[in-house]
Amino acid sequence: MSILELLGFGDDGWGGVLLLAASMTIAVTLTALAIGALIGTLITAAKLSGVRIFRIAGDIYTTVFRGVPELLVIYLFYFGGSTFVTSVGHWFGATGFIGVPPFLIGSLAVGMISGAYQAEVYRAAVLAVSRGELEAARAVGMPASLMMRRILIPQVIRFALPGIGNVWQLSLKDSALISVTGLAELLRTSQVAAGSTHQYFLFFIVGGTLYMVMTMISNRVFNHAEARVGRTFRTNFARN
What we know:
about 240 residues, mainly alpha, MetI-like fold, flat, transmembrane transporter activity, transmembrane helix
């Protein structure tokens, strides 16, 4: 078969399958980023808390999930999670091995890793907010909820966006490791296509190219978001 036929969208082509796998990669990364945002926010609150045990717990979390290899975390969540679910199932009378959904557990594992990096991004963004603005808001009696909505959160988003863009790229690459669970994301599908056709160079190049396309589009999206947020702040500053 020719290269065009192999990469086509016909019955024998892999084009549609690869695009579907790329969409699965994006879905995993988006889900992981959302999970990481929730976890990162909680860890940021813990690390900036006045309670010492919360700060220690936050430091332990970020140290562990940034220090342990990502693949080991995925193995632990997938195989350890399956073992745990199987044990619980046996308590309730189930038999045999019970596997966990690869998409769910893979997104959770990458999300936990992403949360450790996002926590540091959010913490740095919070510390970058002018203390004078917060003190002025308190001085005029602004409620804490309004201060969060009008002053803290908008500036945290502004300062955190570049870092979140980097975390997105990290999660996009980490999603390739979920292939060890059998999920048909881009790397796994590229491996299957290469093994089925013996065109290893072709399909790994195509897979890498699709990752590069997703990366370039992601960069454009984040650059646009940063520019728009920057214009909004400049406009609001000029009005004030």
